[in-house]
Structure formats: C-alpha cells, structure tokens
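Marked as duplicate of an earlier ticket. Keeping the data here for the record.
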Amino acid sequence: MGRKRGIHRPTPRARKLVKYLVAGKSHAEAAILAGYSPKHAAQSAYQALECLSKSFPQLMDEAGLTDVAFIKKYLLPLMSAKRTIYFPHKGKVRDKRVVAALDTRLGALELACKLKGSFAPVRTESHSRAITTIILDVPRPPRPGPNGEMPPTTIEVQPSSNGHKPQKPE
C-alpha cells in the first residue's frame, strides 16, 4: 500500500528533533542530536519544523481529529468550563461561588487556533536607523577650557547621508 499523496509523516529524525526541542535544547543542538549535519544545523531544524507544521493539520484529520470532531468533543466542553471559588473566614469556608473559568476558555481557543493554523503569521517590522538629537538645557556654571577660553554653548550635529561615513565639510 503506497503513501497517500500530500500527507508527509514525520521521519524518525524529525521525531527526535521534536523530542530534543521539547527537552529544552536549542534548534542547533537538537538538530545535531537528532542526526542532522552539524553544518547549518539550525537551518536544518528550521526546515524540518516547517515541514512538520505544514503536515500537522493533515495528520490530525487522519487520526480522526477533524475540525468538526475537535469542536464537538474538546472545544465546546472547554468553552463552558467553570471554576469554584471558595471564600474562607477565620479558617472556615463561609461561601462558595461557581464562575466561568475564563483563562481555561481562552487557552482552549488559542490552542485550537494554533493547531489548525488559524492565526495570521507574525509580521516582523524592519527598524530603520534614525538620528535622535537630545538637547539638554541644564543651568550650570560655565567652565573655562584648558586654554582659558569659554566652550561653545551649543554643538551642531549634521547626520550623514549614507549612515556610515561622516560628511566632509563643504
């Protein structure tokens, strides 16, 4: 019986990689321990995890955890989770109340969305280099320089156009 087209099962190395990552190893350490080449080990780990993340929803469906089954069996019961809060006074419980377990509900919803890939990918913002001028106007007594001259009261700073080399005075 052949492999189903489009479904990629995790390889033994990928399983070891996940095991070492869960144990707290870095991507590079986990990849080397799992049997990937030490040359560019972190890149190998990243690529293996990308393949696993793409095939995970398919594996869940194959295991019987379809979207409908997941919602009916697991998500709906968690969305109605309740918590009992006890109110003690002088060592004895005087009152108790049943309230919605909002943190459990939120955690279940986030986990469901992460597993099914419903979250939008995280965008990284590029930071541009900027020059910030800080002007301190602190009253202090003027001090003469080493030649007895008074120092200038302001210093003008001109940003360079290319960001690296200072501009030559014109």
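See parent ticket for discussion. The chain is about 40% helix and 10% strand.
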